[in-house]
Specification:
Layout lengths: L1 H9 L3 H37 L4 H8 L2 H7 L3 H8 L1 H8 L3 H4 L16 E4 L6 E2 H12 L3 E5 L6 H9 L5 E6 L7 H6 L9 H9 L3 E6 L6 H13 L5 E5 L11 E5 L4 H10 L12 H15 L6 H11 L2 H12 L9 H16 L7 H13 L11 H9 L3 E3 L13 E3 L2 H12 L6 H4 L7 H10 L2 H18 L5 H12 L10
Parallel strand pairs: 3-6, 3-7, 4-5, 5-6
Antiparallel strand pairs: 1-2, 1-7, 8-9
Helix pairs in contact: 5-6, 13-16, 15-24, 18-20, 20-22, 22-24, 23-24
């Protein structure tokens, strides 16, 4: 071989021959390199396909930082960060966890005809139209949805979260007590949990963040959420709150949910026929006739002006109107000024019937509820009020709390289905001649709904005294979000025949 190589070098064609040999060797190396690259790509493609369903693949290849960096030759990590399909694939195992707090959305409970208006705009639009725009990839930037308790803010947010085309995380504001980024990390594992990676996705608008109940948390938690919004000012963030005095993120657009109009009240009440229990006394045409008769009496024109306005105010709230629907369907005459109390009485009677006449422990339950609200606790502990919460769940007052990464055999926990129901039990913690809580919590927006229910559940003389305190507070703080509604409800009560007194 050495002699042949030497002979080739001595010929006049040696340069051409060497060039040919070099070209052949180069092509061989390029071919081998191409095969290796294709094999590497095929290998990671198979891993990506297997990733959502194989925990071993997740742990060994994707959640192992060094394996991902070295075995991925650097480009795999970049593709996971910037390729939309791969980003969705990376978060696929966590979709249920990211949306766990949104709960099981019920299309039957959603009312698309509710009106929504951007602050400063001249006209409103149906909530369904605005929802279509948000789901159609037009949720850009930061949006705040503001509305009274019970108007459907949470349902709207849950409906947006159902958009399977975009990467979403749903957070109750109470989960953000250590920070929004930390709350998101608690739902993830592996590289998806990496703070730098998350920050990139949020800032780029790839991971859409939904936060519900800003009014239900402390000022410190709310400040952390606002700080998050200001830090990720280019991200997509949808938040919901009741009216309150606060400083929203400067770039956020505010949309206000409107109370139901007269035609919408009738349409909503009739639409509840799809969610009535199977054993309801009035169904079908009988339920429709019952609703028509009730609305004709409740909204009759000869009712005294302030009383009619108060009745209209209550019926314009979908949450209250849902309670009315269930009472009408079961042959119970609704007392609009004590709807939540009526609901409670039905549950209390059922509890006594199924527990050998034992009384529902209202005072202890109310005190525990007050502690939960003060501490921003989202749910009851698994070992408390088990019997009581089970009966309340049957009456749709509480729901199963969605744990993040909970153990499969963990005992169930419960949370209030709606803050109006929670507020009803908080009222009991505010009642009493020497109770200082009404005066101590005037400036705490977490208890706004409690004051509005106190307007109907407090003895009339005590309610008038609290009205004076709210007016004084509003004059000093320039915050009329509670006092104005309280006065409106109390005016209607003064002109109506109601029974004064607290809870029983």
């Amino acid at each position: 071989m050495e002699r042949q190589e030497q002979n080739l070098r001595e010929t006049t064609h040696a340069p051409a021959i060497e060039k040919t040999i070099d070209g052949v060797e180069r092509r061989q190396w390029l071919f081998l390199g191409g095969v290796m690259v294709l094999a590497h790509l095929l290998f990671w493609r198979l891993l990506i396909l297997a990733y959502p369903r194989w925990p071993l693949v997740q742990t060994l290849f994707f959640w192992n930082r060094w394996m991902r960096r070295i075995g991925g030759f650097g480009y795999v990590g970049l593709l996971l960060a910037w390729a939309p399909f791969l980003r969705r694939r990376l978060f696929a195992p966590f979709r249920d966890s990211l949306l766990a707090d949104a709960g099981a959305f019920s299309e039957a409970g959603y009312f698309a005809e509710s009106q929504i208006k951007q602050r400063g705009a001249n006209s409103a639009e149906p909530m369904g139209d605005r929802l279509g725009r948000f789901k159609g990839r037009q949720l850009k930037g930061q949006v705040i949805l503001e509305g009274e308790s019970g108007l459907g803010k949470s349902l709207f947010l849950q409906r947006v979260a159902q958009d399977g085309q975009r990467l979403m995380v749903f957070l109750p504001a109470a989960r953000c007590n250590q920070g929004v980024l930390e709350a998101i990390q608690a739902k993830l594992a592996g590289p998806a949990k990496d703070p730098g990676y998350l920050q990139t996705l949020i800032f780029a608008g790839t991971l859409n963040v939904i936060i519900d109940g800003l009014n239900e948390v402390s000022a410190e938690t709310r400040a952390r959420i606002v700080q998050f919004a200001e830090s990720f000012f280019k991200g997509n963030l949808l938040m919901a709150t009741q009216p309150m005095i606060w400083q929203p993120p400067p770039l956020a657009r505010v949309y206000e949910l409107q109370p139901l109009g007269k035609a919408q009240i009738e349409a909503f009440l009739l639409s509840r026929s799809t969610v009535l229990s199977e054993d309801a006394a009035y169904q079908g045409n009988a339920y429709r006739q019952r609703c028509d008769q009730y609305l004709a009496e409740a909204l009759q024109e000869d009712t005294f002006g302030e009383a009619r306005a108060a009745i209209r105010h209550i019926l314009s709230n979908p949450m209250d109107l849902t309670v009315v629907a269930h009472m009408l369907a079961n042959g119970v005459e609704p007392d609009l000024y004590r709807l939540q109390e009526q609901h409670y009485q039905l549950m209390k009677d059922d509890y006594a019937r199924t527990h050998a006449g034992q009384a529902f422990p209202l005072q202890a339950f109310a005190e525990r509820t007050y502690t939960m609200r003060r501490n921003d606790e989202p749910a009851f502990a698994a070992d408390e009020f088990g019997n009581e919460l089970a009966v309340m769940a049957e009456h749709r007052m509480v729901i199963r709390y969605q744990e993040v990464l909970a153990e499969p055999d963990a005992a169930p926990r419960y949370a209030f289905r709606h803050d109006k129901i929670m507020d009803f039990f908080l009222v009991e913690a505010f009642l009493g001649d020497d109770n200082q809580r009404p005066a101590e919590n005037l400036d705490d927006p977490r208890f706004r709904g409690v004051y509005l229910q106190l307007a109907t559940l407090m003895p009339l003389d005590a309610a008038k005294k609290l009205e004076r305190e709210l007016i004084d507070y509003a004059a000093d703080s320039k915050d009329h979000s509670v006092s104005d509604s309280f006065i409106q409800i109390l005016r209607g009560r003064r002109t109506s025949v109601v029974t004064d007194g607290g809870l029983e």
